[in-house]
Design the sequence.
């Protein structure tokens, strides 16, 4: 669905953010783009949406080139920025005014999602808290039923019940024809949601694997003590002892600890290449 | 559906803009009306020693007000659509660059002019009644001082070469300001204001000093008015003198060309705008 080839982007004349990035995203999946602050996550997302025009390389989204920003492309895309703008209108009116731009927009679904998120219908969007505004816009984005939903730090500012509601709603909205891309540095919030992990650092993709592949190749386990005799890829001290990433030759099931995976990849990007070969 | 222009998309975009702006527009209208009323009353009182002054006051306040409000309106438009998070929303809306430009043109060059003339007309209706009776009172208080001078002032006619010329020049400056606001990426407001200020100085110098002194043939009058085709009583005395036609034509056409060129710049800048 999305093919990014040799993407270069720099801010101003010197600040290079993306240097020859290649990425392929397909429909029917929820992608999690993980990375530290300044890693280039938001830049990638903005390039996919056509909000930033890369210096070189190409981004194909379905039949469209992102940089062309054609209305037909934009009407199949919903982008939630990290700090979204909310006009001085109530959610119901927002849906009516902005929904007309999206051919598959479902106003009833929008109102029902707003109620699930407990968004006050009498408040104007510009009066809402950051979290409430974000929830309203996430509800709107889902109701637009676009092929591509891109969420930049969607859980920032959301309270605990809303985060769980967010996960439920996103999981429910995924189907074989759409693709959801979530960028975050709050890994725990999306741990059970995403089915493909992309880790970026300094504008490069360090890790790009599906959750199924990770689960098959790696075994995440808590050990009371550091084990030196058994093979392991990565180990970190935790409250209960040590969290370890071990090879998984028997393909045993374990709960993927994204935080540990992320740290392992960042500590040495080559470390986890072998198990997937 | 066309990827360049669709009437449905454009009307949705226009509606979106209207819903987002009408409250601010009401506030701006009230401020504009207040400023115009203040200007009309203040300048009328300033010139109270002479009669018939309101005829000139109206024109001057209209032109001055137009320049200030046109610049203010442009800054408002930019902050309401292209500043920070609003820029992201504007660029994410499923409409074409042409539709965004057309919306900007419709608001800045059509709606704004109609809106300003309407506000001025309403304010002037009210103030002119007072001004005319005030001038009459001044005349009655000292008729000898104004002997044979008193003729009641009239309400301004909007189809008047001075006003059309002023509006054309100030709209050009407004368009230049918008193009600059979209052109620069850093220190947008400061740089744009400087560009407009410099352009205004250059324009004034070129038309009021350079052309009359260096390029107008001896015995000819250089007329810097853009609209020479509109015959008006204001030009009666000018018509007695021959107007250098080449420079008059140049003035009209180069203003028009520059304006079209600036809108082309605006279109391409909107097309390649980033967040």
Sequence:
């Amino acid at each position: 669905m999305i093919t990014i080839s040799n993407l270069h982007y720099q801010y101003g004349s010197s600040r290079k953010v993306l240097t020859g990035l290649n990425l392929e995203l397909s429909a029917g999946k929820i992608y999690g783009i993980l990375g530290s602050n300044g890693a280039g996550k938001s830049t990638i997302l903005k390039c996919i949406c056509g909000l930033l025009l890369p210096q070189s390389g190409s981004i194909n989204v379905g039949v469209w080139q992102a940089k062309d920003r054609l209305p037909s492309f934009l009407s199949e895309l919903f982008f939630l920025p990290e700090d979204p703008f909310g006009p001085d209108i109530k959610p119901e009116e927002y849906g009516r005014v902005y929904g007309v731009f999206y051919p598959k927009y479902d106003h009833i679904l929008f109102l029902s999602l707003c109620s699930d998120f407990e968004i006050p219908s009498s408040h104007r969007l510009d009066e809402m808290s950051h979290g409430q505004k974000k929830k309203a816009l996430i509800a709107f984005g889902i109701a637009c039923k676009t092929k591509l939903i891109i969420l930049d730090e969607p859980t920032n500012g959301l309270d605990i019940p809303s985060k769980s509601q967010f996960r439920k709603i996103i999981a429910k909205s995924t189907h074989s024809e759409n693709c959801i891309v979530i960028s975050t540095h709050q890994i725990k919030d999306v741990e059970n949601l995403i089915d493909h992990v992309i880790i970026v650092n300094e504008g490069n993709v360090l890790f790009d694997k599906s959750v199924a592949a990770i689960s098959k190749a790696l075994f995440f386990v808590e050990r009371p003590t550091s084990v030196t005799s058994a093979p392991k890829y990565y180990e970190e001290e935790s409250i209960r002892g040590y969290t370890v990433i071990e090879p998984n030759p028997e393909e045993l099931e374990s709960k993927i600890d994204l935080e540990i995976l992320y740290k392992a990849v960042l500590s040495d990007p080559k470390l986890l290449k072998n198990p997937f070969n | 559906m066309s990827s360049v222009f669709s009437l449905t998309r454009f009307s949705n975009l226009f509606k979106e803009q209207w819903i987002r702006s009408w409250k601010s527009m009401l506030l701006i209208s009230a401020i504009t009306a207040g400023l115009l009323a203040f200007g009309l009353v203040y300048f009328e009182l300033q010139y109270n020693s002479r009669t018939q002054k309101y005829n000139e006051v109206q024109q001057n306040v209209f032109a001055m007000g137009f320049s200030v409000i046109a610049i203010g309106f442009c800054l408002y438009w930019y902050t309401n659509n292209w500043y920070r998070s609003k820029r992201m929303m504007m660029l994410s809306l499923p409409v074409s660059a042409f539709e965004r430009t057309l919306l900007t043109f419709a608001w800045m060059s059509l709606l704004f002019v109609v809106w300003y003339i309407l506000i001025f007309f309403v304010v002037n209706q009210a103030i002119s009644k007072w001004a005319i009776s005030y001038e009459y009172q001044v005349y009655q208080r000292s008729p000898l001082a104004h002997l044979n001078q008193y003729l009641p002032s009239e309400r301004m006619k909007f189809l008047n070469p001075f006003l059309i010329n002023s509006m054309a020049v100030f709209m050009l400056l407004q368009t230049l300001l918008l193009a600059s606001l979209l052109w620069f990426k850093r220190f947008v407001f400061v740089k744009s204001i400087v560009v407009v200020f410099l352009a205004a100085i250059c324009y004034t110098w070129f038309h009021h000093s350079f052309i009359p002194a260096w390029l107008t043939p001896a015995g000819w009058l250089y007329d810097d008015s853009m609209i020479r085709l509109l015959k008006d009583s204001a030009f009666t005395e000018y018509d007695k003198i021959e107007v250098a036609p080449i420079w008059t034509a140049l003035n009209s056409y180069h203003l028009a060309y520059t304006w079209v060129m600036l809108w082309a710049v605006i279109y391409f800048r909107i097309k390649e705008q980033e967040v």
Chain B touches chain A at residues 1, 3, 6, 9, 12, 15-16, 19-20, 23, 84-86, 88-89, 91-97, 99, 272, 274-275 (CB under 8 Å). DSSP finds eight helices and no strands in chain B.
